[in-house]
Specification:
By secondary structure, the protein is of the alpha+beta class. Helices cover about 70% and strands about 15% of the residues.
């Protein structure tokens, strides 16, 4: 069920709709604000657009790294399962 959640990002109060739990929305809000604060600390001059772009780039990089790691783990698991099935097949009478 879609619910409306109140969040604060970059000092702005926003209403967002989501099927996620309030706890999950709060976690997303906290992560966004954390990444924005990290980016803001690296940018001089207070250019909000630059801060947002840097934060998005950092999040995108983390997302791509996580996707790559997941794909590698899935490949490893697939290979291990195939190996176990092969071993079981050889042991059958």
């Amino acid at each position: 069920m879609i619910a409306t959640h109140s969040i604060r990002v970059l000092g702005r109060e926003l209403q967002v709709k989501s099927v996620a739990t309030p706890e999950h929305v709060a976690q997303v809000e906290a992560l966004v604000n954390e990444k924005l604060a990290e980016a803001e600390a690296k940018v001089s001059g207070g250019d909000t657009q630059l801060v947002v772009i840097l934060a998005l780039m950092n999040l995108a990089e983390a997302c791509l790294d996580a996707r790559k790691q997941l794909a590698e783990e899935q490949r490893t698991c697939t290979e291990r399962v195939a190996g176990l099935i092969e071993r079981l097949d050889r042991q059958q009478f």
